[in-house]
């Protein structure tokens, strides 16, 4: 995405492209031909996969828990429930909700926030209510 390297616990992993000899990943869009690893380790993974025709993020483990359920449910075909966020619209969800890790630049995060508000208004309203409820506790 922005060229920043994320924490990566997998030895021999490479940023930007799939390692030669590494099995490709089956994605909702077909077999992957490259990956950009933001994080892969004991806490889960945040990886952007591409295929010949499409691509998107795979978010698992602890990172998946940081994305509100309302956004997962409103993702394309509900694929966020299984940790998949397609590149056209849904990719803004992990960019916004995982921004604290520093994998994305400020411009990407600001755009992701605007897109989350515009693309998923019901989920955003629920998210704001949840934040306000936390402030009251």
Explain what the structure shows.
The structure is a single chain. This protein is α+β, with helices and mostly antiparallel strands and 137 residues long. The chain has one domain (26-136). The chain is built from five helices and six strands. It has a four-stranded antiparallel β-sheet with strand order 3-4-5-6. Mean pLDDT is 86; it is low at 1-21.
What is the element layout, followed by pairings?
Layout: E1 26-27, E2 30-31, E3 34-41, E4 44-50, E5 55-59, H1 61-65, H2 69-74, E6 84-86, H3 92-97, H4 106-119, H5 121-136
Antiparallel strand pairs: 1-2, 3-4, 4-5, 5-6
Sum up the structure in keywords.
4-stranded antiparallel β-sheet; globular; 137 residues; 6 strands; 34% helix; alpha+beta
Indicate the mean pLDDT.
Answer: 86
Q: DSSP strand (E) fraction?
A: 15-25%
User: Describe the biggest sheet?
Assistant: 4 strands, antiparallel
Sheet with most strands: strand arrangement: 3-4-5-6
Count of individual helical segments: 5
Helix content: 25-40%
Rg for CA atoms: 15 Å
What's the β-strand tally?
Answer: 6
Number of domains: 1
Short summary:
This protein has five helices and six strands, in the order βββββααβααα. Helices cover 34% and strands 20% of the residues.
């Amino acid at each position: 995405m922005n060229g920043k390297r994320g924490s990566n616990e997998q030895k021999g992993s490479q940023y930007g492209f799939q390692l030669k000899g590494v099995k490709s990943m089956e994605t909702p869009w077909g077999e992957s031909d490259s990956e950009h690893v933001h994080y892969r380790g004991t806490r889960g993974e945040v990886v952007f996969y591409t295929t010949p025709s499409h691509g998107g993020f795979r978010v698992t483990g602890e990172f998946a828990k940081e994305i509100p359920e309302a956004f997962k449910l409103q993702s394309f075909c509900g694929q966020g429930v299984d940790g998949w966020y397609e590149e056209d619209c849904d990719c803004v969800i992990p960019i916004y909700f995982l921004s604290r890790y520093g994998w994305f630049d400020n411009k990407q995060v600001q755009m992701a926030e605007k897109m989350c508000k515009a693309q998923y208004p019901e989920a955003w309203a629920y998210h704001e209510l949840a934040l306000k409820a936390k402030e009251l506790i």
